[in-house]
Amino acid sequence: MTYYTQAKFSTSAPDIRHLEGDEGIEVAFAGRSNAGKSSALNTLARQKNLARTSKTPGRTQLINVFELEEGRRLIDLPGYGFAQVPIAMKKKWQQALGEYLQKRKSLKGLVVLMDIRHPFKDLDQDLIYWAVEANIPVLALLTKSDKLKAGKRKAQLMMAQEAALAFMGDVTVQTFSSHNRQGLPELEQMLDGWFHRHEEKK
Ligand SMILES: Nc1nc2c(ncn2[C@@H]2O[C@H](COP(=O)(O)OP(=O)(O)OP(=O)(O)O)[C@@H](O)[C@H]2O)c(=O)[nH]1
Ligand SMILES: [Mg+2]
Question: What CATH number did the domain enclosing 141 receive?
Fold first, then answer.
C-alpha cells in the first residue's frame, strides 16, 4: 500500500478546456503515443486496469482524471505524435496542451514519458520548454527500461541527463519500467514532493 494505490477514476474530459475544478494539486502524465503513460499510471497505482493501455498507439483519446483524495489528482493525457492523426487535429491538440500548461493553476508537476530508446523527440522538447517557461517542474521518465541491458540503459540515462541541461529548468531524468517496476520508488519520491507529502510519508 502506498498513497498512490488509492487512485480512483474520476472523470474523462474531451478537451483540456473542459477540465473542471482547478483547485488543489494535480500532476499530469504526458508523452508520445505508446510511450507507456497509462502503463506507468497503473504501475504507480498497483492497479491493472485503472488506465487503459493498448498496443495500438492513440488509445487514450480523452483526458482521464484519477483522484487520490479530494484536491489531489493524476491526469492521463492523450498521447501526441501519432502518425495517423490528421494535421489539423494535431495542431489543435498542441495548442490545447500549451494552454493547459500556461493556465492550469493546480498543475504542479509534469511527467513526460519517453521510450528510453527514443528520448527527446521534437514534440517532447516543445512540451518541456513550455513547462519550463510556465515554471512547472518536469520529470522526464525514460520508459521501457527493461528493453535495454544495464550498460546501455545507464548510457542512455547519462546522455538524456546531459541533453536535459539544455532546457535550463527544473528537469529531472529517470529511467522507468512498468514491466519490472524499475524506477518506481524514484517516481513516487518525485510525486510525493509535488503533492507536498514530505512530512506525512511513512
Ligand atoms: N517492455 C515494456 N513495454 C511497456 C512498458 N510500458 C508500456 N509498455 C507497452 O507499450 C505499449 C503502450 O503502452 P501504454 O501504456 O498504453 O502507452 P500510452 O503512452 O498510454 O499510449 P497512448 O494512450 O496511446 O498515448 C503497450 O503495449 C505496453 O504493454 C514497459 O515498461 N516495458
Ligand atoms: Mg494511454
Answer: 3.40.50.300
Beta bridge partners of 63: 13
Is the ipTM value over 0.95, yes or no?
yes
**What would the pLDDT profile of 111-163 be if each residue is shown by its tens digit?**
999 999 999 999 899 999 999 999 999 999 999 999 999 999 999 999 999 99
C-alpha cell at 160: 538524456
Quote the cell numbers at residue 125: 522538447
Which atom of ligand 1 lies at the shortest distance from residue 59's CA?
Answer: 24
C-alpha cell at 88: 489539423
CA nearest neighbour of 74 among 65, 62, 82: 65
- For residue 178, the ligand closest to its alpha carbon is 1
Q: Please say whether the beta carbons of 7 and 195 come within 8 A.
A: no
Establish whether residue 146 lines the binding site of ligand 1, counting it when its CB lies within 6 angstroms of any ligand atom.
Answer: yes
Q: Which of 74, 140, 150 is nearest to 107 (CA)?
A: 74
Domain count, the chain: 1
Domain for residue 131, yes or no?
Answer: yes
In a domain, 160, yes or no: yes
CA distance 165 to 201: 30
